[in-house]
Amino acid sequence: MIEFRSKEYYQVSAALAFGSFLVFCNLYLFQPMLPILADHFSVSATKINWLLAAGTFTLALMLLPWAFASELIGRRKVLLISLFLLPLIGLTSLLTNNLTLLIISRALMGMALAGFTAVAVAYMAEEFSAKAFSHGIGAYISANSLGGISGRIFGGMITDHFNWQTAIACMALLSLIGAIIVALVLPKQKQVCYQTSQLSQYHRIVIQHLKNKKIFFAMLIGGVNFALFINIYTVTGFRLVSAPYSLPVSIASMIFLCYLSGTISSRLVGIWCQYFNPVIGMLFGAIISLIGLLVTSNDSLIIIIIGLNLLSFGAFFTHSLAYGWVSQQAKNAKSTATALYLVHYYVSGSIGGFYLIYCWQHGGWEKVMMGAGLLYFTVFTLCWRLYSHTQKKLNTH
pLDDT band at residue 334, thresholds of 50, 70 and 90? Predict the structure, then answer.
């Protein structure tokens, strides 16, 4: 096993973090462009949201197939195949100016992104010691947030100063260079355990994970938490480019710098787990996130930024704990367990976008607050259910 602070720990952590950075740059490249593209294609905010939702939907659908493939051919091969598909699909999307075809290309991008996303944490869980994993998962999720920040700001600024086609081309080039670097740095797995399970057996493993309430409740928590987090940002983007703010997209996209507070909080997860209950930490993060949302109800741009920082801090804290919890609670087929978590995560994020954008279009920010409030109540209830279940298990042993 790879121990914390060893040379191999830093090598693997750096390679997976950089790969994760590229994945999330590509996934969220289009999010800040949505208001501009809605005008460009003369469609509603709900319809243009498919450019984001198509990628997250197909990413969710392909997580389990990629996880199954990694059980057969190994984690590293899947990680690299996924990364090298990114520039290829990115460049093919430049061949059209038709919205439907562009949505299809984003769906294909989501399928490719799913490979790396489904397998990276399982790679760590198998290769790292428990201490190395608790710190490594924080670094990995920090890279997720940095990639999300960079992709969004890059997409917003390049689109504002040039056009969306230029943003795609530049991202494809960066992805190709990055994939080559990861291929050179990421070592072969030592804990190789290829499975020859049939699809029917794999189906039973999926059901086994879903029946495990300690895993299932954490998956739901992660999903609803993400539905809130990402889509509050999407709606905030529409809010800031509209009156009375009327900000250009390049400036409005700077709100994604607020993700940095989430980068910080995800790195604190390892420390939290050494002293406190992870499930209590999930609830704690959700409460901070809710406070952040309440703060954004103020019309002051500075106060909105403070609220988004609190929202990001809490949401990433909850996500990091729930994500790590699922991988550690799974006694076998860890890549399947983490893939199932991400299925809930991205499907919820996709559906949540249409839900909160609908609230925005039919009642403004006040309706968004009300809609989000229902989702926060759901998160709190799920945290209580998970905590009660874990305590019940402890009392029976």
Answer: confident
